[in-house]
């Protein structure tokens, strides 16, 4: 009989690219994952993975079996979740991906609230600032800040966020405070390297792009925030990164007479299967934790 634990070991090995990485994802010893793979191959009567000392690759039969294995495991998980939902509980694995900065500042506390209400959910959260392919990388859902253009995904809106121009008081004292988009172009900028370097602002004729000189390019919002606090330059950051620093006076919001392009937070999941009860419950829990409007958009009392 084919065991689901062997199917799971195969899927994680194929997606992660190595048995070692799969064992870390599963929280199992490498030898256990290897044995489960070997048992699955014995049952199927074919080799699924070609192992060499330098790399791991799927055989032709492994490539054929992978999408079916993913469907088998997903349907088993969804069936288990449906039965749990009927009994009034949520249970089983839930694998999420989210950006590092937002995950540390806001998602982690909100997930603790969710797990306290649903202790039988086996949650795995992976923080990564690269663009994660939820459909191909085996995630049940991903948190996205900004538009979800992937037609393979369905997105549930969680919260809004503005993007704010900010700088330290020391930087503005030395370089001056820009009061227009034209003046802004002459300043040093801290840019996010994982999106277009242009800063987009809404003006009377539609949208205009500003291309400031880069003092730093980095793919992490927390590093950008800290660089702005240190006086390296002006940053355009989501309000959820800088609301505390603005309240404390460590950063100052800059008004250039035009509003920067905003963004929304979404929980996105693959379109090829309907949202499980766990994903629906998670989205509802996150929306409640963040608030409407979200707490990072609400001015704090002095």
UniProtKB/TrEMBL annotation:
Record keyword DNA-binding present: yes
InterPro entries assigned to the protein according to its UniProt record, in alphabetical order: LysR-type_TF_proteobact-type (IPR058163), LysR_HTH_N (IPR000847), LysR_subst-bd (IPR005119), WH-like_DNA-bd_sf (IPR036388), WH_DNA-bd_sf (IPR036390)
Origin superkingdom: Bacteria
Segments forming domain HTH lysR-type: 2-59
PROSITE patterns: HTH_LYSR (PS50931)
SUPFAM superfamilies (alphabetical): Periplasmic binding protein-like II (SSF53850), Winged helix' DNA-binding domain (SSF46785)
KW Lipid biosynthesis (keyword) present: no
Keywords, in A-Z order: DNA-binding, Transcription, Transcription regulation
Family: Belongs to the LysR transcriptional regulatory family.
PANTHER family: HTH-TYPE TRANSCRIPTIONAL REGULATOR, TRANSCRIPTIONAL REGULATOR-RELATED
Protein name: LysR family transcriptional regulator
Gene source species: Sphingomonas tabacisoli
């Amino acid at each position: 009989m084919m065991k689901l634990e062997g199917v799971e070991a195969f899927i994680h090995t194929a997606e992660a690219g190595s048995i070692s990485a799969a064992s870390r994802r599963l929280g199992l010893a490498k030898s256990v994952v290897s044995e489960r793979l070997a048992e699955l191959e014995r049952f199927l009567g074919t080799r699924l993975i070609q192992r060499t000392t330098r790399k791991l690759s799927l055989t032709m039969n492994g490539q054929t079996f992978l999408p079916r294995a993913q469907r088998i495991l997903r349907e088993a998980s969804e069936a288990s979740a449906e039965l749990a939902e009927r009994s009034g509980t949520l249970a089983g694995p839930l694998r999420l991906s989210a950006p590092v900065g937002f995950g540390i500042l806001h998602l982690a506390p909100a997930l603790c609230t969710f797990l306290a209400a649903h202790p039988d959910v086996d949650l795995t959260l992976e923080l990564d600032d690269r663009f994660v392919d939820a459909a191909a990388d085996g995630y049940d859902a991903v948190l996205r800040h900004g538009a979800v253009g992937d037609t393979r995904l369905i997105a549930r809106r969680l919260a809004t966020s503005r993007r704010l121009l900010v700088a330290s008081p020391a930087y503005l004292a030395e370089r001056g405070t820009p009061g227009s988009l034209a003046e802004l172009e002459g300043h040093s900028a801290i840019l996010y390297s994982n999106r277009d370097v242009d800063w987009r602002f809404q003006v009377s004729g539609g949208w205009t792009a500003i291309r400031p000189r880069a003092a730093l390019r980095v793919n992490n919002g927390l590093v950008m925030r800290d660089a702005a606090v240190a006086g390296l330059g002006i940053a355009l950051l989501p309000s959820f990164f800088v609301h505390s620093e603005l309240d404390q006076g460590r950063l100052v919001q800059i008004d250039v007479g035009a509003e920067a392009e905003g963004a929304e937070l979404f929980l996105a999941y693959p379109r090829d299967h309907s949202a499980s009860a766990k994903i629906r419950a998670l989205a509802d829990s996150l929306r409640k934790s963040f608030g409407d409007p979200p707490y990072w958009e609400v001015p704090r009392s002095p």
